[in-house]
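Researcher: Re-running this chain for the archive, since the previous output was lost when a drive failed. Same request as before.
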Amino acid sequence: MCVCLSRIGSIHQKTTATTSLSLSALHAGVARRWRGWSCFARLTNGRHGALQSSSFLSPPPLSMRSSRFRCTAVLLFHAPRCASRPSPPPLFASRWHGQQHPLTPHPHTNTNTNTHAHTHVLPSHPQPHSHRPTAGRISLLLLLPLTMLRATLTRLEMAPKVTHIQDKLLINGKFVAAASGKTFEVVNPADEKVIAKVAEAGKEDVDAAVKAARHAFETYRTTDCHLRRDKMLRLADILEKNSKEMAALESLDNGKPFEVALHADVALAVECFRYYAGFADKVDGSAPARSGNFLGLVKRQAIGVCGQIIPWNFPLLMAAWKLAPALAVGNTVVLKPAEQTPLSALRLGEMALEAGYPAGALNILPGFGATAGAEIARHMDVDKVAFTGSTVVGREVMRMAAESNLKKVSLELGGKSALIVCEDADVEEAAQVATTGIYFNMGQVCTASSRMYVHESVYDEFMGRLRKHAESRKVGPGNDTANDMGPLVSKKQHERVLSYIEDGVKSGATVVTGGKKIGDAGYFVQPTIFADVKDDMRIYKEEIFGPVTCVMKFKDLDEVVKRANNSIYGLAAGICTRSMDTAIRYSTHLDAGTVWVNTWNNFCATMPFGGFKQSGIGRELGKEAIDLYTETKSIHFALKGPIAKP
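Model: Regenerated structure tokens:
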């Protein structure tokens, strides 16, 4: 289902799959936030039925051009361009005030194909605000969703300076030093300078945190469900109130642009907490029919102590994805953030205490995977472990869980996602989708569109447009909002990505653009495109986790779907096409847990996320995540008295 928003107060139905909404109804939906019913909120408009949305009802992304405006209403489907669509009204036409679309090169950018714009960013010389592509825009944030795509459409301000850093472990409601006294350095990837020295959790700290979580579980699981709901809503409010501070922290140790952290990471984390707060009083059961004089009840209840190990690419957001469903239904948690990016998780711990979470309900242990992470995975008193990271490490987590107490496991692992651009696709739109797919978050996304298959009839045009977008990306420190991309997260990751680029060249692939590091300080890499890539090359088969993509031609759609599926991974995939029939048919045949149509990296708390094959076990987000953190119990009652005769 999709919506074409073509003029204020007037919506035209495009296809039989299209639902019309008035702008007033859209604003009414945005304004509606029901505390107790956030996870069941609906956007309705009379006879046209209901569109499920997230807890803060915001419509999906805008794709804006000088002559057209549209808004889709479903995450997975983005409406193809309609030739008959009228020009936008003055309000939307004036949004850019004569400026270019943010995904196109700025007039002042050197567009010489031999000189990339991103090679001139370091050292950074920000343009005056009035000269930037987005200067003077009318704010339409109410019409933008809380999705990763939104972060590419807004630049509001310079990043604030970080004035407070928590550097201790959170155990049993208190911030304490590590039992060993050890600390480790957290480094700013933009300049390679040490930000802070953070306490390093070891075995003794894990034991203390698990003990605190077990003790807290005995009372927290019986806490009134409405109180659990209200605590989580308070946490969401506190996080939202301090969103700029949290975004600055996220940008500081991860390197991502401040605007991305603010409008994607923090905003989506807030919505995730609000969504699962609504589930606290809605975990229901059933009463199946029983034969004989018996009554049967089926209920779901919290598992117990949950160990959660999160990655460095979206530190705050991954913490929210795991913490929210676990805490909402009555579990207690021992969370280990990645050693590269512990700062936002520790600050979130401070906010949780402020929101009223009891001591031991949430424990946060920064440290290393081989020590703190492994101790959590094999701890005999941890009932469930959730891990997001590489497939290689995921296997180890699963092995340790099995060899200890056979604890429950959920895994969100690697990917090598395929984007298919059909011959009927809007080529410019497809190039923008591809740009978002591979260069968002510096390509450090498990769903990155690192394999692109383009129909031979549009290959040259697509490649030219994608190259133009890649070369217009401004790469530099995340605290400068003139930049589109920041550094890679660490020296190790920087070297890894550059080694893949070198291997691709040695294997015979052609570097269309990029392929080199930028500057002497910081872990910066040029946005890179490879052509002439064969299916047996490492850059084609393996997850690079950087701003590097391979673009291949295809002729037959059935054949290219087989190529796309020929991978050990199955996390995400995408199709760019104007045909609804093609989109539905081939999204079914793609072996991936998420398929995007004419969009990419579009997430919502209401939609489950996870992978096929070696991309993971279980689903995060949506109501499906509740299943990851609850046990099913059957209760049988013997009833007294005679059985009624028919």
